[in-house]
Amino acid sequence: MDVRSVDRCMGDTEAGRPLFGSSGGSHPLARFTDQQETYGAHVVERFVRGLQGLDLVLDLGAGSGRDLELVRRFHPRAQLLAIEAGQEYAAALKGKADRVYVANIERDHLPAADCQADLIIANQILEHTKEIFWIFHEISRCLRVGGHLVFGVPNICSLHNRFLLLLGRQPTQHKLCSAHVRPFSKADTIAFLNACFPGGYQLVDFRGAQFYPFPRTLARLLANTFPTFAFTIFFMLQKTKEYHGEFATYPSRAQLETNFWNGGLLTGSQYWTPPAANSELVVPGLKSVSTAQGVGASG
User: Fold this and answer.
1) Shortest CA distance to 254 belongs to which of 182, 196, 189?
2) Which residues pair with 263 in a beta bridge?
3) Strand order in 287-289's β-sheet?
4) Can you state the angle between helices 132-142 and 186-196, rounded to 10 degrees?
5) 276 Cβ partners below 8 Å, 6+ apart?
6) Exposed / middle / buried, residue 133 (Cβ in 10 Å: 0-12, 13-18, 19+)
7) Are strands 99-102 and 287-289 parallel, antiparallel or unpaired?
8) Is 146 helix (H, G, I), strand (E, B) or coil?
9) CB under 8 Å to 49, separation ≥6 — which residues?
10) Tens-of-pLDDT digits for all 299 residues of the chain?
11) φ and ψ at residue 143, rounded to 5 degrees
12) CB 44 within 8 A of CB 152
């Protein structure tokens, strides 16, 4: 192996340069784009503003709270729960969620009872995870029939990635030396849903955002016209039937040769028992960040 390649992956900290792969949007062509378009706030707004009767909303990997603020604007009475991986991220959500939980979504239960959530959002988070079966298990457990799941992910089939692959180059969003570990496309995502939970979800809407290497106005036009070629793809799904653990048990049923986490569902149901009426929500493995610590409830 070429030592220079190792040095490049490790980065030149002495020179003060960021480590290779430590940040996205570093390609020279990225200078022409609006990086905020990648997060598709206008797409999320389009999805959530038309929904009705939202009482409980969960945001997985809530980040800065941008998507929660959109939900609050259109659904001011909804209870907003944010889930983040660490205290430093949770601190940024002060005043943007009614409750903030610090949790590992690849192992922990989500802070909701079965069929309790009306909307679950996961924007630019799923590509960072290995345990996709457990995550969708928990989402499907918490989401009520008729509830919606909105998620956005980088598109491995974007136009610029197709050209890169023709040239024998790695897609920009899915390099080995990066934070992203799981690729997504529209067709493969739908195939995943249909294989694991047949008939469980209906695709209500599908949109694209960001279109490399074009500036914002042209990028939006192209992403709206050719969403499967966009840099980021967004799904709005509606849960259409009762869930019985199909996602968590799929790796074993399909004999996938990877040690996916299933929460012990194959040796007996580990479905979390919901709390009694009027009791405080307590979920194994989750730490709730209270307002006394400076993070948490808003009005």
Assistant:
1) 196
2) none
3) 201-209, 232-239, 143-154, 117-123, 56-60, 79-84, 99-102, 287-289
4) 70
5) none
6) buried
7) antiparallel
8) strand
9) 70, 74
10) 444 444 444 444 445 565 555 555 555 666 667 788 889 999 999 999 999 999 999 999 999 999 999 999 999 999 999 999 988 888 889 889 999 999 999 999 999 999 999 999 999 999 999 999 999 999 999 999 999 999 999 999 999 999 999 999 999 888 888 899 999 999 999 999 999 999 999 999 999 999 998 999 999 999 999 999 999 999 999 999 999 999 999 999 999 999 999 887 754 434 333 334 443 433 444 555 433 233 333 33
11) -75, 135
12) yes
DSSP string covering 24-70, please? Answer: SS-SGGGGGS-GGGGG-HHHHHHHHHT-----EEEEET-TTSHHHHH
Which residues lie across from 235 on neighbouring strands?
151, 206
Residue 112, both tokens? 């909701």
Which CATH fold would you assign to the domain 27-256?
Rossmann fold (3.40.50)
- Confirm if 82 and 93 have CB atoms less than 8 A apart: yes
CA–CA dist 75, 78 (Å, integer): 6
Residues whose CB is less than 8 angstroms from the CB of residue 233 and which lie 6 or more positions away in sequence, other chains included: 152, 153, 154, 155, 184, 185, 186, 206, 207, 208, 209, 227
Name the burial class of residue 7, with classes exposed (0-12), middle (13-18) and buried (19+) by CB atoms within 10 angstroms of its CB: exposed
Q: Which amino acid is at 84?
A: E
Q: By three-state DSSP, how is residue 144 classified? A: strand
Report the greatest alpha carbon distance in the chain. 62
What pTM value is reported for the model?
0.82
Token pair belonging to 123? 């924007």
